[in-house]
Amino acid sequence: VRNVTFAVATAVALSIPSDTNIKKLERKNINAMRLQLQQGLHTHFWGKPFAYVEPRWVTKADIYAGLGEMWTAVDLNMTQEPFPGSAMKELHSAIIRMSAWVTKAAPLAGGIYTAHQEYAKSARIDLEQVGGLNFR
Question: What are the phi and psi torsion angles at 85 (to 5°)?
Fold first, then answer.
């Protein structure tokens, strides 16, 4: 019970909606990333921010779970914009490639930048480092 209490006390997750301006999260005591599926600059199918207060950080397991949520949202047609059915096979492959990249990734630090992208026809999966130190 003590370990569970400690985890609850120190692993404070921030609850933020997916359309939050992620730049507002860039603070020294926030470790944050964003996973999204989009086409170009203006067509957003799905997105999920991850933000934690120190000493918690975004883990590889968080991103794996997010990729699973992305696939489920697309598969069940629960995206912000309709995802092209012709790109489903490519999306599945892109998720597998992103997972493989995450597995091998070193810790990510610093401000806002795209850490990695994978493509599914004209759509792409973006993994963005937003702030703090993640994948420790």
Answer: -60, -30
